[in-house]
């Protein structure tokens, strides 16, 4: 699936992904995956439904869904390069993804964010009901040596 709008391409084609660019952003600029190894990024992409945003030959955005494509999807690693923020690209990416055929009919769409609640609320995301029922194992600084 691929669409073009205002000179940007939104695509779910993995062969277009620029893994080195994704790794650079996640390992150096994100707050959630500092120091993540390239091999881990590669494996995460292989095992996820991924989306890229491109301007010409440059990848300027990314997101991936960890999903079984039947019941549950977890949205993660969403970013837009800083030079392209403020142009509505996050909203367009969310619209592109949320209607993707592989994400239809799930009973749970979930994510975690420290700073983009307003964006995701526009697409129906809300605080978890009964958060006391949710559990996790979290390895802080997992990628730091």
From TrEMBL:
SUPFAM superfamilies, per database record: Acyl-CoA N-acyltransferases (Nat)
CDD domains per UniProt: NAT_SF
InterPro entries registered for this protein in UniProt: Acetyltransferase_Butenolide, Acyl_CoA_acyltransferase, GNAT_dom
Keywords for this protein: Transferase
Domain N-acetyltransferase intervals: 1-145
GO molecular function: acyltransferase activity, transferring groups other than amino-acyl groups
Record-given protein name: GNAT family N-acetyltransferase
């Amino acid at each position: 699936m691929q669409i073009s709008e205002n000179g940007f391409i939104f695509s779910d084609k993995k062969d277009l992904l620029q893994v080195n660019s994704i790794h650079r952003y996640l390992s150096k600029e994100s707050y959630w995956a500092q120091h993540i190894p390239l091999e881990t990024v590669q494996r995460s992409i292989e095992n996820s439904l991924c989306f890229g945003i491109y301007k010409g030959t440059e990848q300027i955005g990314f997101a991936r869904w960890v999903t079984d494509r039947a019941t549950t999807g977890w949205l993660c690693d969403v970013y837009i390069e800083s030079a392209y923020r403020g142009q509505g690209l996050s909203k367009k990416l969310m619209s592109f993804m949320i209607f993707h055929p592989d994400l239809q009919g799930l009973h749970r769409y979930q994510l975690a964010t420290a700073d983009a609640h307003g964006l995701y609320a526009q697409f129906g995301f809300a605080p978890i009901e009964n958060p006391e029922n949710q559990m996790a194992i979290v390895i802080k600084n997992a990628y730091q040596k």
